[in-house]
Structures
1.
Amino acid sequence: MNLSLYYPRSSAFISGQIGLPHNHPKSWYHSLATGLAQRRNTPSGQSVKHTHMIKVEGLTKRYARNIAVKNISFEVGKGEIVGFLGKNGAGKTTTMRVLTCFLPPTAGKASVAGFDVLEQSLEVRKRIGYLPETPPLYPEMEIATYLTFVAKLKGIPAGDIAKRVDEVCERTSIADHKHTIIGKLSKGYRQRVGLAQAIIHNPPVLILDEPTSGLDPEQQREARQLIASLSGDHTIILSTHILSEVEQSCSKVIIINNGEIVASDTVANLHHRQRATESIRIEVSGAPAGQIKQRLEQVAGVASVESRDTREGLEAFEVHSLENHSVRPELARAIVQAGWNLNELRPVGESLEEIFLELTKSETSASKDKEQEVVAQ
Ligand SMILES: Nc1ncnc2c1ncn2[C@@H]1O[C@H](COP(=O)(O)OP(=O)(O)OP(=O)(O)O)[C@@H](O)[C@H]1O
Ligand SMILES: [Mg+2]
């Protein structure tokens, strides 16, 4: 195998990880493989205690005249899974590439496990498993040969490699295809091999750029389960365009728009964030839907009423209030006074999709202007 054929950035990445001999008692793999307490030991024996595994402060990345990431700051706690959301071109991959030391920041700082991505990139690289948008795979290699090759490059002791390759093949459900040539794999299976190479050295931090992209629904579910099983011991940032994935897999969401962070919170807090208007789900029986709707629309502070499903004589509606109006007591009173039965009345949180679209819509024209500016260059 001609090593010069190897994906150049990945080669640089991996070759940077061979800091100590594989069998060295203080090798990074040795400390990773022997547990959390020892994971805190650096190769030089220094103790590193950080509640924040990833810290980004005022990070800016500029490509020529195009600023892809503008002065963003965020922190990711140990064991957290953070979903990185944003439209195409928002700056997700760029941020991930800075965190994984593929790109230097233009301004600002980023650190992983307390190590600066610019000044201590070797230490950072040892602690990161990276699944890029396009996994760096050798199409002519068998899966097992490729993973063995990666394991060697990542400094896993020779005696542990076969066991570790078997383990990651099991975890990523590719054990039955270990001897298949990578070039013959479907996109979904290539993605699994990409995940396998990212976790093979059991790094404490995983940066996964659209890990479920191209997977069928069953494979997506398996990949999510795998990612969930890695949480706790691993700190994970994953980017995705699948909003339900964030709700299922992530403890925290960072929404990035046009290079800027527009939200950074838990999924639950985002659903119940303070809004000027409220939406209420209401179920009523005892009168025709049209009559109930008309009465609800007359309640002070109501902006609009939408009919929802009707079942077994129950009429359902979603009521939206005007800004800064709390309409729930008045709605209840109106229904009871009309002599109808009030079966349900509850505030409805916004869906993540609604939140995402709202937070990313205001910049749309600005993004278009920016794109035009870039095209014109
Ligand atoms: N190598 C590059 N040279 C110049 N501009 C770039 C380069 N890579 C990315 N960009 C620009 O930086 C901005 C952010 O791109 P980035 O790939 O980080 O977005 P993204 O959020 O990952 O998008 P997607 O969801 O499509 O993967 C875009 O405007 C993009 O065109
Ligand atoms: Mg991207």
2.
Amino acid sequence: MLGRWGNTNLWHNGLIPISQNDLVGREFAEVVADARPFTDEVASALFFTSESFSRAYAALVSELSGIAARAGITADGIDCLVYPKKYRKLAVDGRVNQFYSVSKTGFQVEDGRLRTVGFRAGGKEYSIDADIVIVAAGAFGSPKVLREIILASGNSPAGLGTGFIDHPMGFVGKVRFSRETSGLIRQFSAYDKGAYVSRNAVRLRSDCGRYTCCAFFRPAMTMDNRLTIYKYKSLLGASSGLARLRNACSWKLFHPDILAEIVSHLFGLIIPSRIFNILFIAEQKRGANRVYYDGEQLRVDWSISAEELGVYRSLLEKLKGLLSGVAEEVNLVTDIDDDWLWSAAHHSCTVGLGSGSEALVDRDLKLKYLDNVFVCDGSIIQEHSYANTGLAIGQLAFRLARRVLDVQAN
Ligand SMILES: Cc1cc2nc3c(=O)[nH]c(=O)nc-3n(C[C@H](O)[C@H](O)[C@H](O)COP(=O)(O)OP(=O)(O)OC[C@H]3O[C@@H](n4cnc5c(N)ncnc54)[C@H](O)[C@@H]3O)c2cc1C
């Protein structure tokens, strides 16, 4: 049963692994480590086809660390977000029977297994005997599907949907470098390797060691540091088709920074400026945020906690200190409130994983209450520092597929 309109249809195919060293929870760290051997296979399925992703990524981190060190911008290391230049929309293998826009789903449970999945699609009723069921409806969709399954199993779905995390992100400032340093920062900002481009970030680790955030540098034209312009840029970038056209009808389109961004996107040009925008990507931890359904209506309770905001401010102070030592001018707001930050659409952690009482799936991604139901999508990502989630979801999916095939073979 498939929905056509998931986030995977919208994404930009940027690939970055979740670093195990950034994970606080031991059990999820072990799951991520266990999924690592699948990295190259997944990256290749996600259009990184020129070489081994793991080797290329390790080489990039080493090379870019050198460039960052020469520019004097190394804080707690650097990381690389890798964009294959050629990619297509992901499509389901043609050998898979596909049903879209399903309604009236129903689940029948017997002897600790999900026996049948019923639904209506294209005006017809279906009842399919289930061998293995993998729920992959995303961090917003899976809690709804799982709720029905858990209730059918006679258990309580308590805690489902709670713990939701995302990456709060935002442009927080501008920095101007000297002529010599700006050449290095330009390379660091977007490192072109022919078949792919690596956009690179300075890692920022909190004093408490629990949070790892990062900052990217994007070429800009002015030192103007205005939230309204950043919000407009984000709106323009996130919209498409008619909505983008509508958003383009604004005087803000003519701000030099926006024009520069458009030209660089349209023509793939790197603006030879000495000024850079600072894009901050922040980590959240599992807490009280949640997604739930009011009837059929999805509700998302998402906010940034006072602790998180405090951490972000201190990390921005750290970044300001670092940049002030090497830049000609820094215009960075460190005392941000949550108005400066918005969702990066890396929706995660709405299904607890592990052996704890809150957990609903075990380390094999199997639902606690049933022997043949698994969950694999953003919902089971328990922590993600600043890392985009696509590669990690792919690694976990390939790992799960291997396990299911191995169990069936025995
Ligand atoms: C604009 C944008 C750019 C992004 N860029 C990147 C990037 O460069 N790199 C990266 O790693 N990540 C990126 N992401 C994030 C990435 O797209 C998501 O992390 C990832 O796609 C999530 O995958 P998922 O399987 O959890 O959910 P989804 O891709 O949302 O898939 C869930 C599917 O389940 C279906 N569904 C939901 N409910 C039901 C139901 N009740 N019954 C049946 N089907 C249902 C949905 O229609 C959907 O098809 C981006 C996201 C956005 C929005």
